[in-house]
Automatic annotation (TrEMBL):
Similarity comment: family membership: Belongs to the Rab GDI family.
A cellular component annotation (GO) from this entry: cytoplasm
The protein, known as: Guanosine nucleotide diphosphate dissociation inhibitor
Organism domain of life: Eukaryota
Annotated organism of origin: Linum trigynum
A GO molecular-function descriptor: Rab GDP-dissociation inhibitor activity
Amino acid sequence: MDEEYDVIVLGTGLKECILSGLLSVDGLKVLHMDRNDYYGGESASLNLIQLWKRFRGADAPPASLGSSRDYNVDMIPKFMMANGVLVRVLIHTDVTKYLSFKAVDGGFVYNKQKVHKVPATDMEALKSPLMGIFEKRRARKFFIYVQDYNESDPKTHEGLDLTRVTTKELIAKYGLDDNTIDFIGHALALHRDDRYLNEPAIDTVKRMKLYAESLARFQGGSPYIYPLYGLGELPQAFARLSAVYGGTYMLNKPECKVEFDGEGKVVGVTSEGETAKCKKVVCDPSYLPGKVRKVGKVARAIAIMSHPIPNTNDSHSVQVILPQKQLGRKSDMYLFCCSYSHNVAPKGKFIAFVSTEAETDNPQVELKPGIDLLGPVDEIFFENYDRYEPVNEPSLDNCFISASYDATTHFESTVTDVLNMYTMITGKNLDLSVDLSAASAAEEY
Ligand SMILES: *[C@@H]1O[C@H](CO)[C@@H](O)[C@H](O)[C@H]1NC(C)=O
Ligand SMILES: *[C@@H]1O[C@H](CO)[C@@H](O)[C@H](O)[C@H]1NC(C)=O
């Protein structure tokens, strides 16, 4: 292997595959390796036998659950916002031609011990049982302000500079109560903690607009879409994209040792005694354990069920967000459910996830409020995994390490990490000004 690569990517997780696709399209010479003999790394999708091997040791799955190959259980389940950045990346790179998407049935929020549809527009605010009659009117006015807000048209700003005014101040102007602020911040704007309240309101307003605009693209009840056969399709679609642009893929490469010169700059990667030279390395935290630190732990449960999540309007695919305050916690909890309607389980079966950032030494107990919402389950598995973040200085060592996947069941934080990495690697921003309306006409979803 005498030739030098611009970039060697290690690990075929979602983030790494998106990056190798984007970098190949940019004309960089990319080699992509994985120590496993399958795509996806931590974000692989498993069939029933693989799921049993991972969580139950040698036992065979019960025949009552149906055929193993009808299952595609994402290890990192996430929905995509229909107008979100990831969908823009998919359209920008034309990866949509390798995938089929279907709208997600429901977006719900847990409030005062009950599950409610997330109201995203002024009309929905008026109908929502989440608020009393006077609060509904105040919320409606706020939703109209957000819907009409146009960054480049000061007439819509009502005299407020949202790059200076905090979210707390903006919400105070409309007199909304804490309960309303809680579902707006966590279930609509998808903030993961309450820091946004003291940050400029422009970010929250843009996130609310994204939710409402994504919702408007379908007749359905959620702003999300999800690929048929699960997210496992995504790394492979980006791998195909990379290959079209000259990228080389090698699975089942043991060791993948990153090599450095005397100044600590990366020079290549060695596997099976052969070193491939490169200028930069992109990888997940497991390939450079000396350059990352543990920042937290995700706790989760995976359930196989024979019914949809109760109180979600019979949604065959759904996200339920349980805001931290509703549970007396510091971090939100997420429910994700998908089924045979997205071809991830046999007819009549549902796959549900409950996940959160662990805050105690007994994460399984922490998940209880989420698990209680599922109703009876056929099978349930528990798992924790550590989260890592890079601590290296990429400008010194040319190593670009992704952060571990967080507990969220949507893509917003994942894709932000990918785009930041892209900018660090290439020194430029990805131009994502694609015409979504033209694109959607040409697609299935
Ligand atoms: C936002 O305002 C600008 C400037 O007035 C205008 O050109 C643009 O069409 C507006 N966008 C929307 C979505 O109304
Ligand atoms: C429940 O789902 C049906 C379609 O399946 C939809 O027409 C209706 O608006 C939904 N109701 C709520 C409250 O989301």
